[in-house]
Fold each of these.
Amino acid sequence: MWCSKENLPSSKTILSVAASFTASVVLLRTIINDFVPDSVTTYFTSGLRNLSTKLSSQVTVIIEESNGLTPNQMFDAANVYLGTKLSPSAPRIRAHKPEKEKEMDISIDKDQELLDSFQGVKLKWVLGSSRVEKSGSNKKGNGSSISLSEIRHFEVSSHKKYRDMVLRTYLPYILQRAKAIREEKKTVKLHTIDYNGTDYWGSINLDHPATFDTIAMDPEKKKTLIEDLDLFVSRKEFYRRVGKAWKRGYLFYGPPGTGKSSLIAAIANYLKFDVYDLDLKEVQCNSDLRRLLIGTGSRSILVMEDIDRSFESIADDKVIKHNNGSLAEMLNLTMLTFSTNGVELKSHGCFHYRNMRDGP
């Protein structure tokens, strides 16, 4: 069966029908919004969504940006991970430059699909958002006001039979990869004592050029040190299993200008660990020391330079004291805090006190 050109409707007729249909849809939507209660609309919308979900072979995991006031670690990890999966032909990308960081953060834009593959399984990601109303007091103090805020969420879809794999394997893998990506992009910082700060520390970027490739050091000792650092970093779970604090101690000693500070910078650049320069002359009492230690970040290097000259010797009783505490008390407090404050890693460096020994 065929139709001649004479039997086909004209383009004017087609446009007229399309315009009438569009107008009817707009009118119907207006009637629903104005006369149908929100509860009824929500009920039917939810029912249609549930019916569609039951008929579909796909399962979708929703990863919200936050749970109330608590940020969602999974959302942040997915944002970092998907930024490395963006195709060069992606039509839109989001770029953000964090303060004191050298590299740009690249992430997926809203309503943009991204396909990923894991263990042969294809997964589709979409970044969506929703607006929620927030009530608060009016700035003029004459009543309350309602503002709209945007809450983002990721939707990751796959076949239903891979549901357990997504939840138990794929998402934990993204958490680990995101952590590794952050470490690779991390800008190493130097922290110094600043009592005006909330945690008694102030920071700047550690732009020191020293690396194990450029530092002048005996090749065998350099190789031994690098192997020791690698072994330490890889044995975090072993330390946890045997009930030991995950920390490593090194004693550097020698005349000024022999490269102790450069070696510390080389270690920091190699491990991508921040450096905390703890000048004991600036510490007023044990409580300040405790707060300084608690304020240090995880995966960092604590440096105490010239420790043998940071305390005044009292000839009468042969006891080395610093303000309200002895040297032994200060060092015991240091080690005790590092063993109990729950940080992941503290690496101590540049001790100049000859009677001290290397940590475990």
Note: The CA atoms of residues 247 and 302 lie 10 Å apart.
Amino acid sequence: MLSFLCCLNSPKVLPTLRISTLKENVEAFRRITIQPRILVDVSRIDMSTVILGHKTSAPIIVAPTASHQLAHPEGEVETARGAAACNVIMGLSFMSTCTVEEVASSCNAVRFFQTYVYKRRDITELMVRRAESNGFRAIILTADTPRLGRREADMNKMISPRLRNFEGHTSTEVVSDKGSNLEAYAAETLDPSLCWKDIAWLKSITKLPILIKGVLTGEDAMKAIKAGVVGIIVSNHGTRQLDYTPATISVLEEVVHAAQGKVPVLLDGGIRRGTDIFKALALGAKAVMIGLPGIYGLAAKGESGVKQVIEMLKNKLELTMALAGCCSVDDITRSHVKTDKERFLCRM
């Protein structure tokens, strides 16, 4: 398991032309230093937090990622059980290979549902309503995909598993002789006209709170709050959309300042260690999302692997908090970290 996680620190895991952003998502954390406090009673460490009213054992959410059956035969069901065993929230992808109902019935846990908006709005509405009726607690709108980014690693070799959520509702069989089948499917289905006013439409079809994923600027954070979302996820889509976007940790503070405490801000991208979680919390994130680490755990050992990955991150976060002099996540403040920009200014 450790060897799987170690290889996550190398951009060679996904050898594509988006390597610059992929590498930067991870490297940017290394340029942030931790400023510990000494002689603090840390005999008891509490990592628990509350996210949108739901208490969780740690500020960690399993990010919604597609097609888990590519990693394990039981797919998202195993991921859900691993997250539930650790008492953390899981995000289920719109493009999951297990159905909403299968995941909902697999275990008792808090789950959020991630959605895209299709040209056929009735498909998106159906999926959102299915999630709500099956006990999901929030909707995550992915807003950075009007078109699919150029994913060279997928071209001509992408294996497309069955998207069983859509069976009987829309075709999932799109074959193209140019590029990848995934790209062709996205071009046929995703709605490139999606804009801020459409959040009102999404709110009209569900009673669930809506978070928006894909925010990288303070400007968009303010627009998101004005549109009525209850949470913001700072994300560059795991670097799978636009290359040369900033590392998410490098823009987190800008988004947090723009949000002004009106809604929680979550960070997605580049999390590989407990120290990364600590740094994100210090810069204002309410919690972090983990994508690749969970997938690697799933591929290695199924439910047990997902659980091991989460527990490794929790254990390292707990140790970091103890050594930094923080007894709870609320004790982690901006003064506990220094960015490379701050260190540069100090030398001037």
Note: The longest strand covers residues 210-215.
Amino acid sequence: MHEFVLQAVGDDQQQFFRTVHARTLNNLNHSYLLPVDHDEIQVSYPPSLATIFLDLGTGSGTWAIDIADEFPRAEVIAVDLAPIQPRQVPPNCTQVSLFSSLPSPDRHSHPNLTRRFELCDIDQWSIPYPDSHFDFIHARSIHIGIHNYPRFLHEIARLLRPGGLVLLVEPTLDPSPPPPSLPPMPGWASLWETYRACLRRQLIDVTVPERLADLLAATAAFENIIVRDGNIPVGFWPQDPHLLTVGQLQWMDYELFLPALRPFFLCSGLPPSTVDRLVRDAQHDLYHPSYQPSTLIHIAYASKCY
């Protein structure tokens, strides 16, 4: 059993980062090889009665900050691998660093442990909070860093109070497939096929996004499981102004994501020339698509059984 100590993130944050192939990565989990630098920050509902929120894999912290603003009397705790979140946050948003050593202190007896995010590798250790502590847990776009997603869901069930809600959001790893009558875009398809193959070699289950409901049900800890799939346009082709905005944002997300894969591919053993070709060809298809691309975001939410 691992023990933990809480340590505030100070001005010297270099210990939390490492540089790999000219991109900044976290220094807590060496299996998670996507960058946590300035570009990552740019990538980037619950019930009003919820009082304690947990945001797992908060990234830039935007979701946690928005929730803290929306529900000023709630406590919002956000966890990530690297301290890339803003320092100025709502007073009900928590930001602390977690490291293996000592037991976690009682938050309610330490009122100074507020206005902070928390650092923790949720793939390696049990998440260091008491049983039945949270009313709402949010986890978005993190399954590529979780080697045992069923265990992760059991841990979420442990942390939720009975009746508490979990919201899972995972994008497909096979985005923008062609219409039935058209061939795939070769550069785009090749990059995503390679990405999935490299994740499999790291023992990551690439089918998780499509199986969120089944995985929740398999825990026998959740009920009222609801699944929604969001069909998201990619690019500038929608005529509806709202969908056009969504498409532009998703296109920008992919534009940042493609070069961000470079450290992951290189650490997976691919030659630099192959990586450069994969990224370049996928960028070509993103900039000059042969059809109107779209992608799927898989959303599942459920309540913990009483």
Note: The first helix runs from residue 38 to 42.
Amino acid sequence: MSSSAQSTTTAAAGAEAAARQGLSERAEAVAKAELREDRATRDQALQQFRDWISKNEDLENCRTDASFLLRFLRVKKFSLPMAQQTLLKYLNMRQTFQHLIFNLDPTIPSVDALISSGYMFASPVRDAMGRRVIIHIGSKMDPSRFTNVDMAKVHCITYETLLDDEENQVMGFSHFADLEGLSPSCVTLWSPTEFAHCLRWGEFAARGGRNPTLNHPLLPRQQSIPMRNKQVHFLNLPAPLKYVYDFCRSRFSQKIRSRFLIHDSRETLHKHLDRKSLPKEYGGDIPMAQMIELWKEEIASKQKRVMQLDDMRLVSDSGIVTRKSNNAGSGSTCTGISTVTGSFRRLEVD
């Protein structure tokens, strides 16, 4: 690790008391009940995570502030080895798809236009469970006007902006997608190689770790992006996509399957998702245009921190443990497993 990264580690640890975002009482309770998080666990895990980063020669300029590291610890319920693996996969994904994920600048004209259209934005109102609601309007993605690069940047700007808030890391996310008018041509924007990589990196570990399951394209990849996705609501699912949905859903565990809901009307949607978190056009109180403007302000407030993610570098992917390397035996010396203090905790997908 470079000397500049080591000084960053020291500065982050020294300034943590002042820099860390506070959690609400509700979020503190959820963190303890669902993530096994308390102050002692959090402080110990952060110190061990930083020590590992400072000694890991595969990492350069890796952020070590609490807000960044906690997103990986929380999504893996403070299993340090798993959090380290998710960090490595996250950085590997970013470097592999630099043309899609680097330079997450919301002022790029095409990116700004897609955000302003309402294709994807976060509601300013949390749902009844305290989660931010990510809203997708499929008809706003015009494949004759926007590219897969525009689409990817909007998704990543959304996820990175929201993950910079610790409350969101703990409470998780709900998704709402109105797929009416979604053009099938959107799929053809992606090359077979890009699509295959997204599926591979989008696998959820089934209970026991034996069977991979596919992720829905609207969701961030839990193997590589540390987000707790709790519910996904679909409205106006086109008939051709229904077959794809059914195929993928049959491969989910029962727990994950229960989080995907298809609604045939707004009335049924409102029974499962707090209408106040939706735009006025879908039964809420705040007009969609106002929500989008508030979201753009939130993006702008996080822009500098999000774009600084490009400074981090993974020198080698040798430390990433795959199913193939896992099956090779327990004598692996992969970075990220052999150098970890602590043990794996028994986890379930949450």
Note: The chain has 16 helices and nine strands.
